[in-house]
Amino acid sequence: MRSTRLWIALTAASWLFTVFLLPGWLRPDYHPLSQYISELGATGAPHAGWVNWAGYLPSGLFFAIALASFWRHWRPRGVQAAGLALLFCEPLAWIGSAIFPCDLGCPAQGSLAQNLHNVLALFTYTGTALGVALLACAPGLRLWQRAGWLLLVVLWLGLFVAMLAPELASLRGLMQRLGEALMYGTQAVVGWVLVARRPPALPPAH
Question: Where are the transmembrane segments (predicted)?
Fold first, then answer.
């Protein structure tokens, strides 16, 4: 339990450091309300190496270890295991952002790294949404718990679509941060609570 909570805490701290503290320290010209998080580590951006390798990469690694540690404790099965497995799309996106940084401005089309970055983002948003939707279908949940997971999916995808809309470009950074805060924050709180509980009993062997 303690090790899982440690990794959850490290993931949260690393995300907050990368998303909110690094911009102020390294990029006074960066505008978090209107610029994507990935633009901090864009090719050619000031201090991009620091952001990618001291921000995105460790955040992704902490996230992956936290998920793996929770998996080992909770021992998910069936649809719950499939849903939790898809949540690994999230740390993959952070690690991928360090390896395939976007171009300046994070355009819809650009260099090979930018195109791979975009594919990874689409894979992450859809994979995460499907994963959480599967978690909502897990047996034993109450109605309000299922509704909460599904509401999270709606907000996650809704903010993703909104931040891509040209007319909302001045707020796309805010919407991206809000979506990640809702998604990652909910997972962190639920994981923190569940690791203190006894995992479901395994079915008897036949």
Answer: 7-26, 53-71, 78-100, 120-141, 148-166
CATH number, span 2-194: 1.20.1070
120 contacts 74 by C-beta, under 8 angstroms: no
Geometric angle at alpha carbon 152, from 90 and 173, rounded to 5°: 60
Q: Residue ranges of the alpha helices (H) in 165-194?
A: 172-194
Contact 45, 55 (CB under 8 A): no
Tokens of 128: 């995460």
Contact between residue 48 and residue 104 where contact means Cβ atoms under 8 Å apart:
no
Model confidence over 74-111: pLDDT tens digits?
A: 999 999 999 999 999 999 999 999 999 999 999 988 99
Q: Helix (H, G, I), strand (E, B), or coil: what is residue 69?
A: helix
What burial class does residue 200 get, using C-beta atoms within 10 Å of its C-beta: 0-12 exposed, 13-18 middle, 19+ buried?
middle
Residue 82 CA to residue 135 CA, distance in Å, equals 8
CA distance 162 to 11: 26
The burial class, CB within 10 Å (0-12 / 13-18 / 19+), for 186 is middle
Domain ranges of the chain: 2-194
For residue range 116-166, list pLDDT tens digits in order.
999 999 999 999 999 999 999 999 999 999 999 999 999 999 999 999 999
Supply the pTM of this predicted model. Answer: 0.91
